[in-house]
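lol ok so funny story. i was supposed to be doing the assay writeup but got distracted and ended up predicting the structure for this chain instead. priorities right. anyway since i did it might as well share w the group, maybe its usefull for someone
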Amino acid sequence: MAFALELKDIHKTFNKGTINEKVALDGVNLKLNEGDFVTIIGGNGAGKSTMLNAIAGVWPIDQGAIIIGDKDVTSLPEHKRAKFLGRVFQDPMTGTAATMSIDENMAIAARRGKSRTLKWGVTKAEKERYKKKLQTLDLGLEDRLTTKMGLLSGGQRQAVTLLMASLQKPELLLLDEHTAALDPKTAAKVLALSDKIIEENNLTALMVTHNMKDAIAHGNRLIMMHEGKIIYDVRGEEKKNLKVSDLLSKFEEVSGGEFSNDRMILS
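and the output, tada:
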């Protein structure tokens, strides 16, 4: 049976052989079924974002295999993996073109991975489609198709980026701390929207978060990383019944140390 994503013994070390050598991923194995929505937590330098970047092909891995659906993408460059993936980054300014309008940004996302022609422009039919999509956000953006992306608030921008990432129904959606730069109220809105988009499109998703409560409340599975390894993997009912204190004691038990990331504990 093909998994939506399979990571086989992934290793990545930065600055190998130098004084700054850092083992970022240390034999990561992970299998995702179609429709899995996995939240990922861990302290600073645990390997969370490194794992997402490895999947996206930001740089080559040292060892192991990355399989999306039935395709081994290990040796594919980042731009060739883009057609399988949707990504939303921590910085609301990343992943969109600030000087282009909302509809132009959505058109670029809709045409990702398709052959390009010299003909450019957003057709009337496309505009109608984007309008309907924007309506579902409930932010009044459907009447602002020609507004430049750079003029939107961080929350509005992340909401549009989520839409863009799901326009082509990617095989895998990567959310890398995509609410970290937002205020709590806006972050909650964007998370609710993420849930809705993932559920309605039956997407398979990985979400890195620094907020333990969010990691418990969202998705059907939670993994905890530490020093480049997955140290805890929980799903279903067991995940639903977790408390933050359970995660902290689990971390201490597996790592042999106290969880020292205040940002995660306080949030």
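Confidence is low (pLDDT under 50) at residues 262-267. The radius of gyration is 19 Å.
back to the writeup now i swear
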